[in-house]
Design a protein that fits this description.
The chain has about 250 residues and is mostly beta strands. It is built from one helix and 19 strands. The chain is about 0% helix and about 45% strand. It binds copper (II) ion (CU).
Length: about 250
Amino acid sequence: MRKSKKRTLCAALVTVFGLGLIAADADAGGKITGKATFEGTPPARRKMAMDADPVCVKLNPEGRLGEVMMINEAKEVQNVFVYIKDGLGDQEFETLSEPVQFGQVNCMFTPRVTGVMVRQTLEIGNSDPTLHNIHSMPRRSRPFNFAMPIPDQVIKKRFTSKEIMVRVKCDVHPWMAAYVGVLDHPFFAVSGADGKFAIENVPPGTYTVEAWHERLGTKEASLTVTEGGAATVDFSFALLPPKPEGG
Ligand SMILES: [Cu+2]
C-alpha cells in the first residue's frame, strides 16, 4: 500500500486446522480501535416530514426518524468519522481501486457518513422510483450536481482534493443529507451502531486522530501504533453550547 516500500496489501490466507481461514496480513501494520460515546441525555429523534413527496411517504410507511443523532440506549454514537489527521509525514498511499458505494434508498442517503480517498471512485446509485439529485458541495474539489430520475441509475464521481467533510444534499428532498470525508490516505473509519470503529493496517507511528460528528463537533487524540499492535482510543461527545447571538 505504501508506494515507497512497495509493501503488498495482498493478505496471505493461512489455513489453521479447526479455525478455518485466518487472514495474515503481509503488511503487518497496526490497528486503531475504539468507541464513540455520548455524555448527557441524548436529544429525542424527531419524525421527518416527507410529505413533499408522496413516493417517499409510501416508501416509509412507518415514518422515519431523523438521522443526525444516532445514539443508542448505551449512549454509543453512530456515524462518527474517525481518521488519522496528522503523523503520516510525506508517505504516499495508492488510491484504493475498490469503489465506495453510496446510495439513495427510501429517500435517504445511505450511508449518511462515509469516506473515500482522493480520486477514489464514489459509485452513486438511486434505488427509488422518484427523482433525486446528488448535489455535493466541496470547497476544494469541483462540486457536482446530478439529477437521478431513473431507478437503479448509477453514476461515478471522484473528489480531487482532501477535505473533512464534503457535504452532500438532495435539492428535491431537503431532509436528505450526507457527509463524505476525502483523504489522501486510507486510514479512516465510521463508527457503527455500537459506536465502535476500527482502522486497519496502520503503519507504526505516533498520530493525531480526529473524530468528527456532524452535530457534536470534533475531538482529537494522540496515540502510538506499533508494528502488529492495537492502539485504543475512545471519544466522548456532548452537546455543543449554542452559538452566541450575532457571533
Ligand atoms: Cu432526494
